[in-house]
Amino acid sequence: MTQTPSGPHTLEVALGSRSYPIHIGPGLLGEPGILTPWLAGRQVMIITNETVAPLYLERCRGALPEGVEVHELVLPDGEATKNLEHVSRIWDALLEAGFNRRCTLVALGGGVIGDMVGFAAACYQRGVAFIQVPTTLLAQVDSSVGGKTGVNHPLGKNMVGAFWQPRGVLIDTDTLETLPPRELSAGLAEVIKYGLIRDADFLAWLEREVPALRGLDPEALAHAIQRSCALKAEIVAEDETEQGVRALLNLGHTFGHAIEAHQGYGAWLHGEAVGAGMLMAAELSARLGWLDETDVARVRALLEAAALPLAAPGDMGVDDFLARMRLDKKNVDSRLRLVLLHALGAACVHDTTPEATLRGLLERFPRA
Ligand code: NAD
Ligand code: GLY
Q: 329-353 in b/e burial notation, b at 16+ Cβ within 10 A?
Protein backbone atom coordinates (compact mmCIF):
# COMPACT_ATOMS: atom_id res chain seq x y z
CA MET A 1 0.00 0.00 0.00
CA THR A 2 1.35 3.42 -0.86
CA GLN A 3 1.43 6.09 1.76
CA THR A 4 -0.42 9.28 0.86
CA PRO A 5 1.33 12.64 1.19
CA SER A 6 0.48 14.89 4.10
CA GLY A 7 -0.90 17.79 2.00
CA PRO A 8 -4.60 18.72 1.79
CA HIS A 9 -6.94 15.95 0.75
CA THR A 10 -10.72 15.83 0.31
CA LEU A 11 -13.07 12.87 0.61
CA GLU A 12 -16.83 12.72 0.25
CA VAL A 13 -19.50 11.08 2.35
CA ALA A 14 -21.95 10.15 -0.42
CA LEU A 15 -25.48 10.52 0.91
CA GLY A 16 -27.38 11.96 -2.06
CA SER A 17 -28.61 15.49 -1.37
CA ARG A 18 -27.04 15.31 2.12
CA SER A 19 -23.55 14.42 0.82
CA TYR A 20 -20.70 16.38 2.35
CA PRO A 21 -16.94 16.76 2.09
CA ILE A 22 -14.23 15.93 4.60
CA HIS A 23 -11.23 18.23 4.16
CA ILE A 24 -8.04 16.83 5.73
CA GLY A 25 -4.70 18.61 5.97
CA PRO A 26 -2.24 20.64 8.02
CA GLY A 27 -3.09 24.25 8.82
CA LEU A 28 -6.61 24.17 7.35
CA LEU A 29 -8.08 26.17 10.24
CA GLY A 30 -5.70 28.97 9.30
CA GLU A 31 -7.30 29.38 5.86
CA PRO A 32 -9.52 32.48 6.01
CA GLY A 33 -13.14 31.76 5.17
CA ILE A 34 -12.65 28.01 4.63
CA LEU A 35 -15.92 27.27 6.45
CA THR A 36 -17.96 29.68 4.28
CA PRO A 37 -19.47 27.14 1.83
CA TRP A 38 -21.06 25.21 4.69
CA LEU A 39 -22.91 28.09 6.34
CA ALA A 40 -26.71 28.08 6.12
CA GLY A 41 -27.06 31.81 6.80
CA ARG A 42 -25.48 34.68 8.71
CA GLN A 43 -25.88 33.40 12.28
CA VAL A 44 -23.04 31.17 13.50
CA MET A 45 -22.27 29.77 16.93
CA ILE A 46 -18.92 28.11 17.64
CA ILE A 47 -19.28 25.67 20.52
CA THR A 48 -16.16 24.34 22.18
CA ASN A 49 -14.83 23.57 25.64
CA GLU A 50 -12.53 25.25 28.13
CA THR A 51 -9.48 23.18 27.07
CA VAL A 52 -9.83 23.70 23.33
CA ALA A 53 -10.97 27.34 23.39
CA PRO A 54 -7.60 28.86 24.36
CA LEU A 55 -5.87 26.69 21.74
CA TYR A 56 -8.08 26.96 18.65
CA LEU A 57 -11.08 29.27 19.09
CA GLU A 58 -9.38 32.26 17.53
CA ARG A 59 -8.20 30.22 14.53
CA CYS A 60 -11.71 28.87 14.10
CA ARG A 61 -13.13 32.39 14.10
CA GLY A 62 -10.66 33.19 11.31
CA ALA A 63 -11.99 30.31 9.25
CA LEU A 64 -15.35 32.13 8.99
CA PRO A 65 -16.04 34.92 6.50
CA GLU A 66 -16.23 38.61 7.39
CA GLY A 67 -19.69 39.96 8.04
CA VAL A 68 -21.33 36.98 9.72
CA GLU A 69 -22.72 37.18 13.25
CA VAL A 70 -20.43 34.91 15.29
CA HIS A 71 -21.31 33.85 18.84
CA GLU A 72 -19.23 31.56 21.04
CA LEU A 73 -20.13 29.12 23.77
CA VAL A 74 -17.42 27.53 25.91
CA LEU A 75 -18.61 24.46 27.84
CA PRO A 76 -16.79 22.57 30.59
CA ASP A 77 -14.57 19.67 29.48
CA GLY A 78 -15.01 15.94 29.92
CA GLU A 79 -17.00 12.82 29.07
CA ALA A 80 -19.03 13.35 32.26
CA THR A 81 -20.48 16.53 30.65
CA LYS A 82 -21.89 14.61 27.68
CA ASN A 83 -25.47 14.84 28.92
CA LEU A 84 -28.77 16.64 28.35
CA GLU A 85 -27.90 19.36 30.86
CA HIS A 86 -25.06 20.57 28.65
CA VAL A 87 -27.02 20.16 25.42
CA SER A 88 -29.66 22.31 27.06
CA ARG A 89 -27.05 24.98 27.69
CA ILE A 90 -26.45 25.06 23.93
CA TRP A 91 -30.19 25.52 23.26
CA ASP A 92 -30.35 28.26 25.94
CA ALA A 93 -27.48 30.13 24.28
CA LEU A 94 -29.07 29.82 20.82
CA LEU A 95 -32.43 31.13 22.03
CA GLU A 96 -30.86 33.94 24.05
CA ALA A 97 -28.97 35.03 20.92
CA GLY A 98 -32.18 34.88 18.85
CA PHE A 99 -30.88 32.22 16.45
CA ASN A 100 -33.30 31.16 13.72
CA ARG A 101 -33.55 28.06 11.52
CA ARG A 102 -30.89 29.30 9.12
CA CYS A 103 -28.19 29.33 11.79
CA THR A 104 -25.08 27.12 11.76
CA LEU A 105 -23.44 25.49 14.77
CA VAL A 106 -19.70 24.77 14.63
CA ALA A 107 -18.46 21.91 16.84
CA LEU A 108 -14.84 22.66 17.71
CA GLY A 109 -13.28 19.91 19.83
CA GLY A 110 -13.22 16.18 20.40
CA GLY A 111 -15.99 13.62 20.18
CA VAL A 112 -17.77 14.86 23.30
CA ILE A 113 -18.29 18.34 21.83
CA GLY A 114 -19.05 16.90 18.37
CA ASP A 115 -21.69 14.47 19.66
CA MET A 116 -23.39 17.10 21.83
CA VAL A 117 -23.34 19.89 19.24
CA GLY A 118 -24.64 17.53 16.56
CA PHE A 119 -27.50 16.49 18.82
CA ALA A 120 -28.26 20.10 19.74
CA ALA A 121 -28.35 20.93 16.00
CA ALA A 122 -30.58 17.92 15.23
CA CYS A 123 -33.23 19.14 17.70
CA TYR A 124 -32.97 22.95 17.65
CA GLN A 125 -36.05 24.22 15.82
CA ARG A 126 -36.37 20.64 14.46
CA GLY A 127 -32.95 20.66 12.80
CA VAL A 128 -30.33 23.25 11.84
CA ALA A 129 -26.99 23.09 10.04
CA PHE A 130 -23.78 22.11 11.79
CA ILE A 131 -20.11 21.73 10.93
CA GLN A 132 -17.59 19.38 12.54
CA VAL A 133 -14.11 20.73 13.33
CA PRO A 134 -12.61 17.75 15.18
CA THR A 135 -9.43 18.34 17.18
CA THR A 136 -8.69 14.89 18.66
CA LEU A 137 -7.46 11.92 16.64
CA LEU A 138 -10.50 9.94 17.72
CA ALA A 139 -12.88 12.63 16.49
CA GLN A 140 -10.92 13.08 13.25
CA VAL A 141 -11.03 9.40 12.32
CA ASP A 142 -14.44 8.48 13.66
CA SER A 143 -16.93 10.60 15.58
CA SER A 144 -17.00 13.66 13.29
CA VAL A 145 -17.96 11.55 10.27
CA GLY A 146 -21.27 9.77 9.82
CA GLY A 147 -23.84 11.78 11.75
CA LYS A 148 -24.21 9.82 14.97
CA THR A 149 -24.98 12.42 17.62
CA GLY A 150 -26.16 12.18 21.20
CA VAL A 151 -25.46 11.98 24.90
CA ASN A 152 -24.84 9.40 27.60
CA HIS A 153 -27.38 8.23 30.18
CA PRO A 154 -26.29 7.05 33.64
CA LEU A 155 -27.54 3.59 32.66
CA GLY A 156 -25.90 3.41 29.26
CA LYS A 157 -23.47 5.02 26.88
CA ASN A 158 -24.86 7.10 23.96
CA MET A 159 -28.39 5.97 24.79
CA VAL A 160 -30.11 9.20 23.72
CA GLY A 161 -29.38 10.65 20.30
CA ALA A 162 -30.18 11.12 16.64
CA PHE A 163 -28.68 10.59 13.20
CA TRP A 164 -27.95 14.10 11.91
CA GLN A 165 -25.29 14.71 9.29
CA PRO A 166 -22.94 17.73 9.33
CA ARG A 167 -22.60 20.08 6.32
CA GLY A 168 -18.87 19.38 6.25
CA VAL A 169 -15.92 18.13 8.29
CA LEU A 170 -12.72 20.18 8.57
CA ILE A 171 -9.76 18.20 9.89
CA ASP A 172 -6.73 20.37 10.64
CA THR A 173 -4.10 17.75 11.41
CA ASP A 174 -1.90 20.39 13.11
CA THR A 175 -4.31 20.38 16.07
CA LEU A 176 -2.93 16.98 17.07
CA GLU A 177 0.35 18.65 18.13
CA THR A 178 -1.26 19.75 21.41
CA LEU A 179 -3.11 16.50 22.11
CA PRO A 180 -1.92 14.62 25.24
CA PRO A 181 -0.29 11.23 24.38
CA ARG A 182 -2.99 9.30 26.27
CA GLU A 183 -5.66 10.90 24.05
CA LEU A 184 -3.61 10.11 20.93
CA SER A 185 -3.50 6.45 21.97
CA ALA A 186 -7.26 6.48 22.52
CA GLY A 187 -7.67 7.71 18.94
CA LEU A 188 -5.35 4.98 17.68
CA ALA A 189 -7.80 2.39 19.03
CA GLU A 190 -10.41 3.56 16.49
CA VAL A 191 -7.79 3.61 13.71
CA ILE A 192 -6.81 0.01 14.54
CA LYS A 193 -10.53 -0.86 14.52
CA TYR A 194 -10.78 -0.04 10.79
CA GLY A 195 -7.93 -2.38 9.97
CA LEU A 196 -9.42 -5.16 12.06
CA ILE A 197 -12.92 -4.93 10.60
CA ARG A 198 -12.27 -4.26 6.93
CA ASP A 199 -8.70 -3.78 5.74
CA ALA A 200 -5.98 -6.35 6.46
CA ASP A 201 -3.40 -4.36 4.43
CA PHE A 202 -4.05 -1.26 6.54
CA LEU A 203 -3.71 -3.43 9.65
CA ALA A 204 -0.29 -4.64 8.49
CA TRP A 205 0.69 -1.02 7.71
CA LEU A 206 -0.34 -0.03 11.26
CA GLU A 207 1.78 -2.82 12.74
CA ARG A 208 4.79 -1.14 11.13
CA GLU A 209 3.80 2.49 11.62
CA VAL A 210 2.35 2.78 15.14
CA PRO A 211 5.65 4.16 16.52
CA ALA A 212 5.65 6.85 13.80
CA LEU A 213 2.02 7.67 14.59
CA ARG A 214 2.76 8.00 18.29
CA GLY A 215 5.65 10.27 17.34
CA LEU A 216 3.23 12.47 15.32
CA ASP A 217 4.99 11.81 12.02
CA PRO A 218 2.97 13.98 9.58
CA GLU A 219 3.02 11.54 6.63
CA ALA A 220 1.99 8.60 8.78
CA LEU A 221 -0.77 10.58 10.50
CA ALA A 222 -2.09 11.87 7.18
CA HIS A 223 -2.29 8.35 5.81
CA ALA A 224 -3.94 6.93 8.95
CA ILE A 225 -6.57 9.70 9.03
CA GLN A 226 -7.28 9.56 5.29
CA ARG A 227 -7.61 5.78 5.22
CA SER A 228 -9.79 5.72 8.35
CA CYS A 229 -12.09 8.46 7.02
CA ALA A 230 -12.31 6.75 3.63
CA LEU A 231 -13.35 3.47 5.24
CA LYS A 232 -15.86 5.21 7.50
CA ALA A 233 -17.31 7.27 4.61
CA GLU A 234 -17.71 4.08 2.54
CA ILE A 235 -19.57 2.28 5.34
CA VAL A 236 -21.81 5.25 6.18
CA ALA A 237 -22.72 5.74 2.51
CA GLU A 238 -23.72 2.08 2.38
CA ASP A 239 -25.71 2.04 5.64
CA GLU A 240 -26.35 5.45 7.18
CA THR A 241 -28.67 4.36 9.98
CA GLU A 242 -26.99 1.08 10.95
CA GLN A 243 -29.41 -1.45 9.53
CA GLY A 244 -26.49 -3.70 8.55
CA VAL A 245 -22.81 -3.17 7.80
CA ARG A 246 -22.42 -0.02 9.96
CA ALA A 247 -22.77 -2.20 13.06
CA LEU A 248 -19.25 -3.50 12.29
CA LEU A 249 -17.91 -0.11 13.39
CA ASN A 250 -18.86 -1.20 16.89
CA LEU A 251 -16.08 -3.79 17.17
CA GLY A 252 -15.02 -3.80 20.82
CA HIS A 253 -17.75 -1.31 21.74
CA THR A 254 -20.18 -3.67 23.49
CA PHE A 255 -17.45 -4.59 25.98
CA GLY A 256 -16.04 -1.05 25.92
CA HIS A 257 -19.33 0.74 26.59
CA ALA A 258 -19.91 -1.62 29.53
CA ILE A 259 -16.52 -0.60 30.94
CA GLU A 260 -17.17 3.13 30.44
CA ALA A 261 -20.63 3.06 32.03
CA HIS A 262 -19.52 0.84 34.92
CA GLN A 263 -16.41 2.88 35.74
CA GLY A 264 -18.23 6.23 35.51
CA TYR A 265 -17.92 8.28 32.32
CA GLY A 266 -14.41 9.68 31.91
CA ALA A 267 -12.53 7.27 34.21
CA TRP A 268 -11.50 5.22 31.18
CA LEU A 269 -11.22 7.10 27.91
CA HIS A 270 -13.62 5.88 25.22
CA GLY A 271 -10.74 4.70 23.02
CA GLU A 272 -9.10 2.86 25.91
CA ALA A 273 -12.32 0.99 26.64
CA VAL A 274 -12.70 0.18 22.93
CA GLY A 275 -9.08 -1.04 22.83
CA ALA A 276 -9.61 -3.51 25.69
CA GLY A 277 -12.98 -4.42 24.14
CA MET A 278 -11.38 -5.26 20.79
CA LEU A 279 -8.96 -7.63 22.50
CA MET A 280 -11.91 -9.26 24.26
CA ALA A 281 -13.70 -9.58 20.90
CA ALA A 282 -10.57 -11.13 19.34
CA GLU A 283 -10.21 -13.63 22.21
CA LEU A 284 -13.90 -14.53 21.97
CA SER A 285 -13.48 -15.03 18.21
CA ALA A 286 -10.62 -17.43 18.98
CA ARG A 287 -12.82 -19.32 21.45
CA LEU A 288 -15.37 -19.70 18.64
CA GLY A 289 -12.64 -21.16 16.43
CA TRP A 290 -12.37 -18.31 13.93
CA LEU A 291 -9.03 -16.75 14.92
CA ASP A 292 -5.93 -18.64 15.98
CA GLU A 293 -3.53 -17.72 18.76
CA THR A 294 -1.16 -15.98 16.32
CA ASP A 295 -3.97 -13.66 15.23
CA VAL A 296 -4.87 -12.81 18.82
CA ALA A 297 -1.19 -12.22 19.61
CA ARG A 298 -1.01 -9.76 16.69
CA VAL A 299 -4.00 -7.83 18.02
CA ARG A 300 -2.54 -7.78 21.53
CA ALA A 301 0.89 -6.62 20.28
CA LEU A 302 -0.64 -3.83 18.18
CA LEU A 303 -2.74 -2.53 21.07
CA GLU A 304 0.29 -2.71 23.34
CA ALA A 305 2.40 -0.77 20.82
CA ALA A 306 -0.35 1.88 20.82
CA ALA A 307 -0.13 2.06 24.65
CA LEU A 308 -3.70 0.84 25.09
CA PRO A 309 -4.93 -1.29 28.01
CA LEU A 310 -4.74 -5.07 27.66
CA ALA A 311 -6.81 -5.86 30.75
CA ALA A 312 -10.31 -5.01 31.96
CA PRO A 313 -10.96 -3.06 35.18
CA GLY A 314 -10.22 -5.11 38.30
CA ASP A 315 -13.60 -4.36 39.86
CA MET A 316 -15.70 -5.67 36.95
CA GLY A 317 -17.03 -9.17 37.40
CA VAL A 318 -18.71 -11.33 34.76
CA ASP A 319 -22.21 -10.25 35.80
CA ASP A 320 -21.25 -6.56 35.75
CA PHE A 321 -20.24 -7.01 32.12
CA LEU A 322 -23.30 -9.02 31.17
CA ALA A 323 -25.77 -6.62 32.82
CA ARG A 324 -24.32 -3.65 30.93
CA MET A 325 -23.94 -5.56 27.66
CA ARG A 326 -27.64 -6.52 27.72
CA LEU A 327 -28.47 -2.80 27.33
CA ASP A 328 -26.46 -2.48 24.09
CA LYS A 329 -28.27 -0.76 21.21
CA LYS A 330 -27.38 -3.55 18.75
CA ASN A 331 -29.34 -6.17 20.69
CA VAL A 332 -32.60 -7.36 19.12
CA ASP A 333 -35.38 -9.09 21.10
CA SER A 334 -33.04 -9.40 24.10
CA ARG A 335 -30.50 -11.35 22.00
CA LEU A 336 -26.94 -10.19 22.53
CA ARG A 337 -25.40 -9.16 19.19
CA LEU A 338 -21.63 -8.92 19.18
CA VAL A 339 -19.19 -7.73 16.53
CA LEU A 340 -16.54 -10.44 16.22
CA LEU A 341 -13.77 -11.37 13.79
CA HIS A 342 -13.97 -14.19 11.25
CA ALA A 343 -10.39 -13.23 10.35
CA LEU A 344 -8.14 -10.19 10.83
CA GLY A 345 -9.65 -7.65 8.44
CA ALA A 346 -13.06 -9.37 8.30
CA ALA A 347 -15.63 -8.62 11.00
CA CYS A 348 -19.13 -10.02 11.40
CA VAL A 349 -22.15 -9.52 13.63
CA HIS A 350 -22.86 -12.63 15.67
CA ASP A 351 -25.96 -13.23 17.77
CA THR A 352 -25.62 -16.89 18.68
CA THR A 353 -22.58 -16.85 20.96
CA PRO A 354 -23.31 -19.51 23.61
CA GLU A 355 -23.58 -17.85 27.03
CA ALA A 356 -21.08 -20.36 28.47
CA THR A 357 -18.47 -19.31 25.87
CA LEU A 358 -19.00 -15.63 26.64
CA ARG A 359 -18.87 -16.28 30.38
CA GLY A 360 -15.67 -18.28 29.89
CA LEU A 361 -14.06 -15.31 28.11
CA LEU A 362 -15.25 -12.82 30.74
CA GLU A 363 -13.97 -15.03 33.57
CA ARG A 364 -10.53 -15.61 32.06
CA PHE A 365 -9.84 -12.19 30.52
CA PRO A 366 -7.12 -10.45 32.56
CA ARG A 367 -8.07 -7.76 35.05
CA ALA A 368 -5.90 -4.76 35.90
P1 NAD B 1 -13.03 14.27 24.16
O2 NAD B 1 -13.95 14.99 23.30
O3 NAD B 1 -13.36 14.19 25.62
O4 NAD B 1 -11.57 14.87 23.98
C5 NAD B 1 -10.52 14.32 24.73
C6 NAD B 1 -9.76 15.41 25.51
O7 NAD B 1 -8.89 16.10 24.63
C8 NAD B 1 -10.65 16.45 26.16
O9 NAD B 1 -10.11 16.82 27.38
C10 NAD B 1 -10.55 17.60 25.16
O11 NAD B 1 -10.84 18.85 25.74
C12 NAD B 1 -9.11 17.51 24.75
N13 NAD B 1 -8.75 18.08 23.46
C14 NAD B 1 -9.48 18.08 22.33
N15 NAD B 1 -8.73 18.52 21.31
C16 NAD B 1 -7.52 18.82 21.81
C17 NAD B 1 -6.33 19.30 21.24
N18 NAD B 1 -6.19 19.48 19.92
N19 NAD B 1 -5.26 19.54 22.05
C20 NAD B 1 -5.37 19.29 23.39
N21 NAD B 1 -6.46 18.79 23.98
C22 NAD B 1 -7.53 18.56 23.19
O23 NAD B 1 -12.86 12.74 23.68
P24 NAD B 1 -12.69 12.09 22.24
O25 NAD B 1 -11.82 10.93 22.45
O26 NAD B 1 -12.38 13.07 21.21
O27 NAD B 1 -14.17 11.57 21.93
C28 NAD B 1 -14.79 10.58 22.73
C29 NAD B 1 -16.28 10.69 22.57
O30 NAD B 1 -16.62 10.46 21.20
C31 NAD B 1 -17.04 9.67 23.38
O32 NAD B 1 -18.13 10.30 24.01
C33 NAD B 1 -17.54 8.69 22.34
O34 NAD B 1 -18.75 8.07 22.72
C35 NAD B 1 -17.73 9.57 21.16
N36 NAD B 1 -17.70 8.88 19.87
C37 NAD B 1 -18.69 9.14 18.99
C38 NAD B 1 -18.69 8.54 17.77
C39 NAD B 1 -19.74 8.89 16.76
O40 NAD B 1 -19.83 8.23 15.72
N41 NAD B 1 -20.51 9.93 16.98
C42 NAD B 1 -17.66 7.65 17.42
C43 NAD B 1 -16.66 7.40 18.34
C44 NAD B 1 -16.69 8.02 19.57
N1 GLY C 1 -18.57 4.93 15.68
C2 GLY C 1 -19.58 4.08 15.22
C3 GLY C 1 -20.38 4.62 14.08
O4 GLY C 1 -20.20 5.73 13.66
O5 GLY C 1 -21.20 3.94 13.57
A: bbeeeeebbbbbbeebbebbebeeb
Tell if the pTM clears 0.90, that is, is over it.
Answer: yes
| Whole-number Cα distances in Å, 266 to 38, 62, 271, 278 | 32, 31, 11, 19
Give the mean model confidence (pLDDT) for residues 43-52: 98
- So which residues are the catalytic ones? 126, 148, 190, 232, 242, 246, 250, 253, 257, 270
For a substitution probing ligand 2, which of 115, 235, 240, 249 has the most ligand atoms within 8 Å of its CB?
249
Name the CATH superfamily, with its identifier, for domain 181-364: Dehydroquinate synthase-like - alpha domain (1.20.1090.10)
What confidence score (pLDDT) does residue 352 get? 93
Where exactly are the structural domains of the chain?
9-178, 181-364
Of all ligands present, the nearest one to the C-alpha of 269 is 1
Classify domain 9-178 by CATH number. Answer: 3.40.50.1970
Query: Around Cβ 227, how many Cβ atoms within 10 Å?
Result: 22
pLDDT of residue 156: 84
H/E stretch holding 22: strand 20-25
Instruction: Please say whether the beta carbons of 325 and 259 come within 8 A.
Output: no
Each residue of 60-95: pLDDT tens digit? 999 999 999 999 999 999 999 999 999 999 999 999
